[in-house]
Design brief:
- Helix content is 38%, strand content 17%.
- The chain is built from 9 helices and 8 strands.
- The longest helix has 19 residues.
- It is globular and about 45 Å long.
- It starts with a helix and ends in a 9-residue tail after the last helix.
- The relative contact order is 0.16.
Length: 229
């Protein structure tokens, strides 16, 4: 299927899910997950109107940022954040989603260039206690919100979750947690993003209150796992 058709289909699916959930489509952002896909595919999707792109692998994403520097792309890093790689994240991205420890946020704050806007942050929460998933526990979130929202050069926007497949209840749990911990935010007006839902479950996520869906396969097709990332 042509990329234009895939993009149109995904946008329509989001619109339909918003209508069913009774929310405005403007309140749900599509984040195109472009990891392992080449720069020319990103450029083609940009030409169709997409502006926000998510990457998981640092070196691959830095190469793409350089190759596509002529485009006004909002780059999101959605992979796990390693302590020794915070500097290039702070210097090159508009959003970092995989923050699950205070030390990571502190390093991003310290390393964000002073001439750039505040770095948007989402806390990654292991909402359903999966052994194979990164993220802080739900019990840690309130303290992290209080501490991270006080850091300079960062704008703590919300939560990011990746529940186990078919665990629809986890989306509802994330929404409850998202609302509960807002009271701990030093600047609660910044707390506006619940990043959850992917190609296979974005309708359920939107129904539960997602404001950002991360879609890769439904847009670009199967990932090229043979790619050196």
């Amino acid at each position: 299927m042509p990329l234009s058709k895939q993009y149109q289909t995904v946008c329509q699916q989001i619109a339909d899910a918003c209508q069913q959930a009774g929310c405005e489509i403007e309140n749900v952002q599509l984040l195109a997950v472009s990891k392992t896909h080449p720069s020319d595919r990103i450029r083609a999707l940009y030409d169709l109107g997409q502006r926000a792109f998510g990457e998981n692998y640092l070196q691959e994403s830095l190469d793409k940022i350089q190759q596509l520097k002529d485009l006004d792309i909002e780059w999101h890093f959605i992979g796990h954040v390693q302590r020794n790689k915070t500097k290039p994240l702070a210097e090159n991205f508009a959003w970092v989603h995989g923050v699950d420890r205070l030390i990571i946020a502190q390093r991003l704050s310290q390393q964000r260039p002073s001439d750039m806007p505040a770095l948007n942050i989402c806390l990654q929460v292991n909402i359903d206690g999966q052994d194979t998933k990164d993220g802080c526990s739900p019990q840690e979130v309130a303290d992290l919100v209080r501490e991270i929202s006080a850091l300079e050069n960062l704008k703590l926007r919300g939560l990011m979750v990746i529940p186990a497949p078919n665990n629809v209840q986890a989306f509802a749990d994330a929404q409850v947690l998202f609302q509960h911990v807002k009271a701990h935010h030093q600047q609660p007006e910044h707390w506006d993003t619940l990043s959850m839902g992917m190609s296979s479950d974005m309708a359920d996520a939107i129904q539960a209150g997602s404001t950002m869906v991360r879609v890769g396969t439904a847009l670009f097709g199967a990932r090229d796992y043979g790619k050196n990332t």
